């Protein structure tokens, strides 16, 4: 490794300069109003958690965790996601006071990057969690909130793709011989490697019927066939899973202003192992990467010895910035330059303008090295000197 | 209709794939000069081609500056980019294998492997349970065993001619390689309709071949 230069930040860390900071603040305040109106309460959790609990329960790969050791010798992690700490709080305290529970967060999370160190390793996430509801109404509320929130923020072109971890697992299990085969095929779907999926079907020595079913399932998903068509892939006991998705679809069609935003794809699989029911991804034109994802994660609560339904989503603020037009309002910024002996006068002038909520910077003129360059940062410049106030 | 941007590897694969598109019935300019130009337009189909180094195609697609790309499986295995692999184009078929001087064993103490594909080589030997030193080279990999830099090489084999000419023999086959159609995850959703049609038409054309 070469010597660290003074300007360098640790890999994947980014500064937020004033302009980006304001954009994030805009997102935060817009989202906050929207989310509170939906009845969700914001919370904050520590940046550092125990590796034994949160680090292991989190679905983020261990190699992506930032680890440190505290003075008791305990292994700590910088929180890699917000869902797991929220599950901790809900299970240990808040659910006893209120159930179902609606929580929201706007927080930074940390994930070490393996590839191309410049990618963000610390980024803000904005999300909702609805805990204590097993129903399709809960799922619908979350998907709907994600869609409306993006609209409220001004994201113009986006799509939400909904899958179902339970249905995918059922179809894979119905057509394979053991769990190893199921996880091999699922992994290929997580990677969206359809070529590999086809090859694997040959490799696993499945029967013609099994192969046919799985190929048809993938094709039907890609072609976005009506949900009804997937009934044939499920056994009688499994039909209830599809009932749930159909209910969700109906609810969303009622709630959403634009049902075309939503599509269903049962090949959608996530590396987040705790998703058990419906799951979704949000893609927006303008960013090459998904801007958010979510789903039902009842399984996570089992780790905290709770039997509750939970569903939620998170949106990555850094990717949101890529797709959002700059919505920050350009406010007028005035510079008052004063010369020796005019401090009081210029101060009065500044306070008078500030009281009308104008942004005013007060600056002793002789301290500025290059006045012309400095002045360019302001919309109006007032000089307070011998000759009175000059604009 | 949305504009589609397709990242193509320069050279032989470009010509083969381009012909494949034309055979599938896409209305593309028949003569293009791909020697210096980096962007080629096909206005009738509202397609834009970006000509890139083969190794860079997945980068363009992952970042979404190209919706679709054509990339060798070798590059995809080596880089682990977040792209969807939709179609095996069955062109430029070859495979990756280990090779070395005939009748030689790997060095017991410090086995060394030279390759252009450090990730693939590392994973292969890891799975075999052998710890080796990987030496990354950018070309003329066959030199390495001949001049004593490495015991084995991990490289692409298409006919085996190059190996033979340099007095090397193939030891183990690692994986089959062909060109794949890859898609950016966001384009796959946001331009879903367009990409589905494109893939369907291409698949159709391939089946007729």
UniProtKB/TrEMBL annotation, chain A:
One of its GO terms (molecular function) is catalytic activity, acting on a protein. Residues 12-324 form the Aminoacyl-transfer RNA synthetases class-II family profile domain. Pfam families: HisZ-like, tRNA-synt_His. L-histidine binds at residues 81-83, 111, 125, 129, 274-275. GO terms for biological process: histidyl-tRNA aminoacylation; L-histidine biosynthetic process. CDD domains: HisRS-like_core. InterPro entries: aa-tRNA-synth_II, aa-tRNA-synth_II/BPL/LPL, HisRS-like_core, HisRS/HisZ, HisZ, HisZ-C. GO terms for cellular component: cytoplasm. It is found in: Cytoplasm. Pathway: Amino-acid biosynthesis; L-histidine biosynthesis; L-histidine from 5-phospho-alpha-D-ribose 1-diphosphate: step 1/9. Keywords: Amino-acid biosynthesis, Cytoplasm, Glycosyltransferase, Histidine biosynthesis, Transferase. PROSITE patterns: AA_TRNA_LIGASE_II (PS50862). Belongs to the class-II aminoacyl-tRNA synthetase family. HisZ subfamily. Heteromultimer composed of HisG and HisZ subunits. HAMAP family: HisZ (MF_00125). PANTHER family: HISTIDINE--TRNA LIGASE, MITOCHONDRIAL-RELATED, HISTIDYL-TRNA SYNTHETASE. This function is generally fulfilled by the C-terminal part of HisG, which is missing in some bacteria such as this one. Required for the first step of histidine biosynthesis. May allow the feedback regulation of ATP phosphoribosyltransferase activity by histidine. NCBIfam families: hisZ_biosyn_reg, PRK12292.2-4. This is ATP phosphoribosyltransferase regulatory subunit. It comes from Psychrobacillus insolitus.
Automatic annotation (TrEMBL), chain B:
PROSITE patterns: ATP_P_PHORIBOSYLTR. It comes from the Bacteria. Pathway: Amino-acid biosynthesis; L-histidine biosynthesis; L-histidine from 5-phospho-alpha-D-ribose 1-diphosphate: step 1/9. InterPro entries: ATP_PRibTrfase_cat (IPR013820), ATP_PRibTrfase_CS (IPR018198), ATP_PRibTrfase_HisG (IPR001348), ATP_PRibTrfase_HisG_short (IPR024893). GO terms for biological process: L-histidine biosynthetic process. Its EC number is 2.4.2.17. It catalyses: 1-(5-phospho-beta-D-ribosyl)-ATP + diphosphate = 5-phospho-alpha-D-ribose 1-diphosphate + ATP. The keyword Ribonucleoprotein does not apply. GO terms for molecular function: ATP binding; ATP phosphoribosyltransferase activity. It is an enzyme of class 2 (transferase). Residues 53-203 form the ATP phosphoribosyltransferase catalytic domain. One of its GO terms (cellular component) is cytoplasm. Keywords: Amino-acid biosynthesis, ATP-binding, Cytoplasm, Glycosyltransferase, Histidine biosynthesis, Nucleotide-binding, Transferase. It is found in: Cytoplasm. Its main location: cytoplasm. The keyword rRNA-binding does not apply. Belongs to the ATP phosphoribosyltransferase family. Short subfamily. NCBIfam families: hisG. Lacks the C-terminal regulatory region which is replaced by HisZ. Catalyzes the condensation of ATP and 5-phosphoribose 1-diphosphate to form N'-(5'-phosphoribosyl)-ATP (PR-ATP). Has a crucial role in the pathway because the rate of histidine biosynthesis seems to be controlled primarily by regulation of HisG enzymatic activity. Heteromultimer composed of HisG and HisZ subunits. This is ATP phosphoribosyltransferase. It comes from Psychrobacillus insolitus. The gene is hisG.
């Amino acid at each position: 490794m070469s010597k660290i230069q003074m300007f360098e930040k640790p890999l994947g860390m980014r500064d937020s300069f004033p302009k980006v900071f304001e954009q994030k603040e805009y997102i935060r305040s817009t989202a906050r109003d929207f989310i509170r109106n939906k009845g969700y309460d914001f919370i904050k959790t520590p940046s550092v958690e125990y590796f034994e609990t949160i680090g292991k329960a989190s679905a983020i790969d261990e190699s992506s965790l930032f680890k440190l050791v505290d003075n008791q010798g305990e292994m700590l992690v910088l929180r890699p996601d917000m869902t797991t700490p929220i599950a901790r709080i809900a299970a240990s305290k808040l659910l006893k006071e209120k159930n179902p529970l609606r929580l929201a967060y706007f927080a930074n999370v940390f994930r070490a990057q393996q590839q191309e160190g410049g990618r963000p390793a610390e980024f803000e996430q904005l999300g909702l969690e609805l805990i204590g509801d097993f129903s399709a109404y809960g799922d619908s509320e979350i998907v709907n909130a994600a869609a409306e929130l993006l609209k409220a923020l001004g994201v113009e072109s986006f799509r939400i793709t909904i899958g179902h971890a339970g249905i995918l697992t059922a179809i894979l299990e119905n057509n394979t011989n053991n769990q190893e085969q199921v996880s091999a095929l699922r992994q290929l779907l997580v990677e969206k490697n359809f070529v590999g999926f086809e090859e694997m079907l040959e490799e696993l020595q499945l029967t013609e019927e099994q192969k046919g079913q799985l190929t048809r399932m993938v094709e039907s998903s890609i072609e976005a066939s009506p949900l009804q068509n997937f009934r044939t892939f499920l056994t009688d006991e499994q039909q209830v899973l599809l009932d749930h998705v159909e209910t969700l679809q109906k609810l969303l069609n009622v709630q959403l202003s634009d049902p075309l935003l939503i599509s269903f794809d049962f090949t959608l699989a996530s590396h987040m192992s705790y998703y058990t029911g419906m799951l979704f991804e949000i893609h927006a034109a303008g960013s090459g990467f998904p801007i958010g994802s979510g789903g039902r994660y009842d399984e996570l609560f089992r780790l905290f010895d709770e039997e509750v339904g939970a569903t939620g989503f998170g949106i990555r603020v850094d990717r949101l910035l890529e797709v959002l037009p700059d919505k920050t309002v350009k406010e007028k910024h005035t510079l008052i330059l004063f010369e020796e002996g005019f401090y009081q006068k210029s101060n009065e002038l500044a306070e008078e303008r500030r009281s009308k909520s104008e942004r005013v910077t007060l600056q002793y003129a002789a301290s500025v090295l290059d006045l012309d360059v400095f002045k360019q940062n302001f919309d109006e410049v007032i000089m307070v000197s011998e000759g009175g106030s000059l604009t | 209709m949305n504009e589609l941007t397709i990242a193509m590897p320069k050279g032989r694969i470009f010509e083969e794939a381009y012909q494949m598109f034309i055979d599938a019935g896409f209305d593309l300019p028949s003569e293009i000069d791909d020697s210096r130009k980096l962007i080629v337009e096909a206005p009738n189909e509202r397609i834009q081609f970006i000509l890139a180094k083969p190794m860079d195609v997945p980068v363009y697609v992952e970042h979404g500056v190209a919706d679709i790309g054509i990339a060798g499986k070798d590059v995809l295995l080596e880089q682990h980019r977040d792209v969807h692999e939709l179609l095996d184009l069955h062109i430029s078929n070859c495979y990756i294998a280990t090779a070395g001087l005939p009748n030689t064993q790997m060095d017991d103490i410090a086995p060394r492997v030279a390759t252009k594909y450090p990730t693939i080589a590392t994973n292969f030997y890891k799975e075999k349970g052998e710890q080796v030193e990987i030496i990354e080279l950018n070309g003329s990999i066959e030199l390495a065993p001949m001049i004593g830099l490495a015991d084995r090489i991990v490289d692409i084999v298409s006919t085996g001619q190059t190996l033979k000419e340099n007095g090397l023999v193939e030891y183990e086959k690692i994986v089959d390689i062909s060109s794949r159609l890859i898609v950016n995850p966001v384009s796959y959703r946001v331009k879903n309709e367009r990409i589905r049609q494109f893939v369907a038409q291409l698949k159709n054309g391939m089946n007729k071949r």
